[in-house]
User: Fold this.
Amino acid sequence: MQRIFEFFIGLVFGLGLILSGMSDPSKVLGFLDLTGLWDPSLAFVMGGAILVGLVAFALARKRTTTFLGGALKLPTSNDIDKRLVIGSLTFGVGWGLAGYCPGPALVSLGSGQSKALIFVVAMLAGMAIYEIAQGKTSRSR
Assistant:
């Protein structure tokens, strides 16, 4: 049953990205182009996502289990450390260069965009490099 819910949640997310135009990297790059033809539409999508997130987290804080009965594990750390800053900067640079972040890239890949394939392959390679690096650091401790 959980996989069915996961599928439908992913489907709604993907449809939202398509309807909002956020699976099109030119929309993202237009938002980041402050000196050219700036496109503010991404700000409205982000604002809507933040609003939904605030409501969802407010409701989640009052619960101990997920809607499907699993343990609810919310983040507890508020620390801004070196890893968070470097990771955020790396994500932002990649987003600005490609116009994709992981969700929209997967949606675009599903619609057959070749640029999305290149991004997804690079993203998977980056994830593999991270896992290899983490394995080496955790073994050396």
